[in-house]
Amino acid sequence: MATPRFKQLRRSYGFDEVAIVPGDVTINPEQTNIDLKLGDFTFGIPVLASAMDAVVDVSFAILMNQLGGLAVLNLDGIQTRYDNPREVLAEIAQVSGAEVTPLLQKVYSQPIKENLISERIQAIKQSGAVCAVSAAPANAKRFAPIASEARADIFVVQATVTSARHLSKSSRGLIFPELVKSVTMPVIVGNCVSYSACLELMQTGISAILVGVGPGAACTTREVLGVGVPQITATIDCAAARDQYHKESGRYVPIITDGGFRKGGDLCKAVAAGADAVMIGSIFAQTKEAPGRGYHWGMSQQHPALPRGTRIKVGTTDTLAQILFGPTSVTDGSQNLIGALRTAMGICGAATIQEMHRAEMVIAPAISTEGKSWQLSQA
Amino acid sequence: MATPRFKQLRRSYGFDEVAIVPGDVTINPEQTNIDLKLGDFTFGIPVLASAMDAVVDVSFAILMNQLGGLAVLNLDGIQTRYDNPREVLAEIAQVSGAEVTPLLQKVYSQPIKENLISERIQAIKQSGAVCAVSAAPANAKRFAPIASEARADIFVVQATVTSARHLSKSSRGLIFPELVKSVTMPVIVGNCVSYSACLELMQTGISAILVGVGPGAACTTREVLGVGVPQITATIDCAAARDQYHKESGRYVPIITDGGFRKGGDLCKAVAAGADAVMIGSIFAQTKEAPGRGYHWGMSQQHPALPRGTRIKVGTTDTLAQILFGPTSVTDGSQNLIGALRTAMGICGAATIQEMHRAEMVIAPAISTEGKSWQLSQA
Amino acid sequence: MATPRFKQLRRSYGFDEVAIVPGDVTINPEQTNIDLKLGDFTFGIPVLASAMDAVVDVSFAILMNQLGGLAVLNLDGIQTRYDNPREVLAEIAQVSGAEVTPLLQKVYSQPIKENLISERIQAIKQSGAVCAVSAAPANAKRFAPIASEARADIFVVQATVTSARHLSKSSRGLIFPELVKSVTMPVIVGNCVSYSACLELMQTGISAILVGVGPGAACTTREVLGVGVPQITATIDCAAARDQYHKESGRYVPIITDGGFRKGGDLCKAVAAGADAVMIGSIFAQTKEAPGRGYHWGMSQQHPALPRGTRIKVGTTDTLAQILFGPTSVTDGSQNLIGALRTAMGICGAATIQEMHRAEMVIAPAISTEGKSWQLSQA
Amino acid sequence: MATPRFKQLRRSYGFDEVAIVPGDVTINPEQTNIDLKLGDFTFGIPVLASAMDAVVDVSFAILMNQLGGLAVLNLDGIQTRYDNPREVLAEIAQVSGAEVTPLLQKVYSQPIKENLISERIQAIKQSGAVCAVSAAPANAKRFAPIASEARADIFVVQATVTSARHLSKSSRGLIFPELVKSVTMPVIVGNCVSYSACLELMQTGISAILVGVGPGAACTTREVLGVGVPQITATIDCAAARDQYHKESGRYVPIITDGGFRKGGDLCKAVAAGADAVMIGSIFAQTKEAPGRGYHWGMSQQHPALPRGTRIKVGTTDTLAQILFGPTSVTDGSQNLIGALRTAMGICGAATIQEMHRAEMVIAPAISTEGKSWQLSQA
After folding, report:
1. Residues 139 to 168 of C: which have CB under 8 A from any D CB?
2. What is the CATH number of the domain that holds B59?
3. H or E stretch including A238?
4. Of residues C341 and B4, which shows the higher confidence score?
5. Tally of structural domains, chain B
6. A residues 321..340 contacting D (CB < 8 A)
7. Sign of torsion, CA D302 D306 B372 A369?
8. What is the DSSP pairing of strand B277-280 with strand C295-296?
9. ipTM of the assembly?
10. Distance from chain centroid for Cα D68
């Protein structure tokens, strides 16, 4: 008689459950190189701004690129549905919590205007900035030529979960090798969280992968669907796929950990876990330049039948430049993210992002409130 | 000299401690088939309503079946002890928390009237609905012929823990093979939580198993008795028993995870862990159609000497149809449970419930309050 | 070159981290036998009351034995230092929290009167009850003959930690084999928490072992000294020692899990982990008959230089008989402890305490507040 | 094809997650020897006071040595930048929480005066006390001759993380073998947390190691940088390095666990994990003699661009003598730290610190608030 088979569960870890171990060698933070290469582009900082309507509009995209990073403009959102997106964003910031999901469902039910796609891209390009745009898989085949025509530089295809093999009876799905061949720009695809799904996506010829399902501050995917993998484990698994694919193909496809960051230490941990870059939403929604006016909401919150996200009040703290580079008097890790990354790399003796991938990490649950209780009475 | 033997403890997991990993393939949610087969019956959705007095009365049972699922009417409860159960239910909803357990002890000390068993069943059958009824093991032999006579379709035998071998000096216990033989309808038995107990129950010839001891929102079995197994581990173990029994006997006996659900993600996790269906209590007690009037209480709360349950105020949120199928603007996973299940299956590339049993899962502790603290200030 | 050696840590578990798995067989609770044998005595319930001044005085000891259990009178405490202990107990109940430790330090600095030892024992014996008394190791040699003379039945030697080999330069320590030989009554010794320490103590010829360091509600040993082992692991380890010693010597030495109980489920878990009996302090301090008047304090709180305990307000809930046997309308597991134990044994198919030792257990963290949040709004 | 490689994470533990197991032998606390040897110095208690400005000034250093321990004076801080440090300390204690980091950034931007280095050392030496001073790695080469000239006894080089191999393009870094050769006093270096980094530092010829990155109450390194290892694991790893180095070289280099202590039990756990001594900050900042006036702040809080620390209000509880030696009526473990250590050693049968290193430990999560909830209503 056969042995019974029990389903096996593997332990996974998020940012709050791990810590980085200092290295046997240390280096000066100033000597670290944190460049990110995407296709033929090189960015001075390995940071992307999320394709979310509360984070990126045309002027934010330009500023982000001027500061060394890359912002992705959402082609499925408010910027391409409304001639005057500021009015709509202002309304979203004003309604009460009870009214916001119905409002978002209505706002996002308006049709996307193809001319606005071109206009937004051209506005970014005219500033001299690198222009990255995103579309949902269902819109990717239609929007890619328009974006290409308008001279966008990078094309992102993004959904909660994207696989190399999507089965649909009603329509012929998006075929990534065809998309990659049809556009001349690098294609970034997401999101995925597992070794095998990531490997399959890389094999389609795309240029980078977004890693993360369910971790974002404005996302309730894990509550609603039960689906999601904590970011450290997701990053470790996809980094293993990247290294394996690199060994097999000779091609290095960067992975970008997307979502769930709350402070500088989280960025450092993502990179130590294997990320080549990070994509940030809610922290940037707090900048003075963010279009969300102190609010942030999930990309699936507007789903007409099963919304999976919440609008959250993140407040407005400081400029994007300040949050990225400091200097600061804030001590909780929410500012000078790049300074934190360089300092952590110095402590680990890592001169490059790829050397930081080799830093040792431990499982170390977040310091409890009790353990730091004196801080509660901080004067 | 013999080596000392230390008792070994196995780690177990509940809903909040696991998450589902997206698949390498994805499919459209609309293409998923979520049918449940019980005996010769096929139900369009794999959801049962608990045999609890705050959840199911005659009209709720009819509605549930019209919506594709199955509700179980409790033959040991208020519906069969009182000609006018509404009055009693109203009184339970009105007394204070301190008075409720003595009141329940009194309410449930009234005798069960056999004529009411017939009347309730016939009322359900007259609507054309499939009729399922439940009895405690002590009452099963007496009530089964009455239910059979009244043309009930499915007979459920349910206690906190039911085993295939119950030892009693004072009386000859319930023998399941005899019961199965004596009634013509499918027999569902519960509850159990372990591989071996589940396997033994299946070998008695019954048609389905209820899985779960101690997880329900209104249940304090684990506090009072120390007994209970978290639902993910219980489901995994009983699913292994089902698969083993299927291999040995060729007969597929569905397992129904019963209790502890708080949101759509929990249902998805139960199915990914191996459940063929779920049985829901407190979420349905919140529907506008529930007899409990915004309250819910445990099935063991009326025990005269050792009550194990509490009345909880669950409130009234929406209609049963809305909670099952949406559409909704609620983003916390408490509505559109079926939409959530189909979406999660699509993300896992699972076209059927049995394919969903193969979805990968990880141990991933619930996102901490701290991690989502911005939501606390949600406007 | 030798491999470096890292200190290894073993995982341990407390009551809140485990649960009992129902059995494949079930039996009627009424058919369970829960007798405890200590020396030639047989007790109807496997429950001892702690030798703590807030729990046991002469009348409590008599009542406890009448109800089937055994209470231990503390010979190092208030009862043997004061002719009128009630006055002192009243004062302890009246002072503020800030004043209580200095007061206890003063109260316990008064000398023990040997005549009071005899008087208290005789008062218990005159009622016909079995009389158990306790002394600290330092006092054991002196008090044992007095207790013997006064016809005490059971002699308990108890300290935070007691080992079979205590090293002291200044005096010749207590030698257990000598003590056992010198008194004609059974000797119970505690506390210990590990396999080897327990085995060594059993080899001295004593009659039972108290298991537990640091778990009690009124004990801060773990905070102050860092010392302690959670009760489930301590019980499992000492049960392995008992079984090993039984195999080697043919003598069965019961182990009594002492401290940390908060509800009926905890008792059931201790027995499932291997305990032959439990010793209860704070739950009994809540009875109407307890001398502590709604307060409870630790046995090390009176230490003149390093007090390790706190006075806690436990309140007064019900009679000892009610808490032990019910019936009750309380659903949180704090009443009808014996009913809970018999019911859990029935669910596990255990007809005796020793059969309950074989019940399967799982590691299952306590149900979180979040998971049961509806209860917070319980009306 | 090669097997994919996944980054492995090791579990680590902090004070709150472990407990000490009592020994099979016990001894009288008075018979324990807790001497600490550093170079040719022997200290009666294995306790150092942190080189932090809220903890150690000249008079505190003298008192600490009189009581048997060693305090380290910070040469990079307020004491050597200001002729009248008391004024500055008073100002820090007076500003609001929002103003304190900018103030500290300003206070610590003033130049260090070399004459003050000599003056502070001489003041300590004139009292007859052993004088230990600390410098950051960048200042060590410059300050060491001055300290040597002024007859300091022990030289500490301390940064968040210090490695034996620091890489810098701009300057020739600190070479520890050269430093050790150039000064005649023992050199203590820190901080480190891993086996290999600790082993490399010992091989440079230094006399002791400080263990700990990120655990202190006033430190936010782990939040800001993601870097840190909980103290029990860090101590176990560095103790393994010490023992390995001892085996290889015959030289015993003590390790000093630095930071994160909140109560006596934490000290006992550090020693059981392998520490030869402990370095204490925030607990000593609470003494009546501490210069911080009831406040404490991190050593990295004054960083001009990326501050990593917070000022915390610790309050003022009692004298240093009282906190070290009692006697006390405080029962939470915050006083009589040495009494606690000796008592724990007695319970473990450890006559010396090195015997205490062999005490068994278990992983035992901190007693939950729920488990001790009665204490909340402590009168």
Report:
1. 160-168
2. 3.20.20.70
3. helix A231-249
4. C341
5. 1
6. 326-333, 336, 339-340
7. negative
8. unpaired
9. 0.93
10. 16
